[in-house]
């Protein structure tokens, strides 16, 4: 199953915090929530949507924020997340560089960033370069989901911005 391969990219530790920033929760959202719950971690969800909507009961344990405009940043604290997952948002947001800056600030050292976009919507090489430009290291394209292109990189301690 594809979701199992997707989840193998993550190694949650007790107390970890993951945040998915997206326009629409889906099966990956639920799978990540269930995985992080197993280690008593916290799953956060920032949803970009003009209007708030009712979430499926399976997401009841997620800490949710709605962001109504694509030019507004999502809210998060510095060094408070172990993984940031951007799903179907980086190509739609009016300022993707702002999102990457927020991700860098909120990630703990040696934490990961994941960018997921519908197949064919993302320029993979340009995305990898953009991640390098924002001091994320070792960006890799990972083909584990039929419907998504996925690029993953790491924030390294004492590299670049040094945050």
Structure commentary:
The protein has four helices and seven strands. It has 163 residues and is an alpha/beta fold. The chain has a single domain (2-9, 13-155), classed as Vaccinia Virus protein VP39 (Rossmann fold). A seven-stranded mixed β-sheet has the order 3-2-1-4-5-7-6. The longest helix is centred in the first third of the chain and has 11 residues, at 27-37.
Q: Report the top-level CATH class.
A: Alpha Beta
The main sheet orders its strands as: 3-2-1-4-5-7-6
SSE order = HEHEEEHEHEE
Helix content: 10-25%
Distance between the termini: 37 Å
C-alpha Rg, in Å?
Answer: 15 Å
Task: Pick out its properties.
4 helices, 7 strands, alpha/beta, globular, 163 residues, 23% helix, 7-stranded mixed sheet
């Amino acid at each position: 199953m594809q979701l199992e391969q997707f989840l193998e990219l993550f190694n949650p530790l007790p107390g970890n915090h993951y945040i998915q920033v997206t326009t629409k929760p889906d099966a990956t959202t639920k799978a990540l929530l269930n995985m992080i719950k197993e280690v008593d971690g916290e799953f956060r969800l920032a949803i970009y949507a003009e209007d708030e909507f009712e979430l499926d009961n399976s997401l009841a344990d997620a800490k949710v924020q709605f962001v109504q405009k694509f030019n507004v940043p999502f809210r998060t604290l510095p060094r408070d997340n172990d993984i940031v997952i951007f799903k179907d948002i980086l190509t739609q947001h009016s300022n993707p560089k702002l999102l990457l800056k927020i991700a860098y600030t909120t990630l703990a050292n040696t934490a990961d960033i994941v960018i997921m976009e519908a197949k064919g919507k993302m320029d993979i090489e340009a995305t990898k370069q953009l991640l390098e430009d924002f001091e994320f290291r070792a960006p890799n394209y990972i083909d584990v989901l039929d419907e998504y292109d996925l690029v993953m990189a790491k924030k390294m301690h004492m590299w670049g911005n040094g945050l």
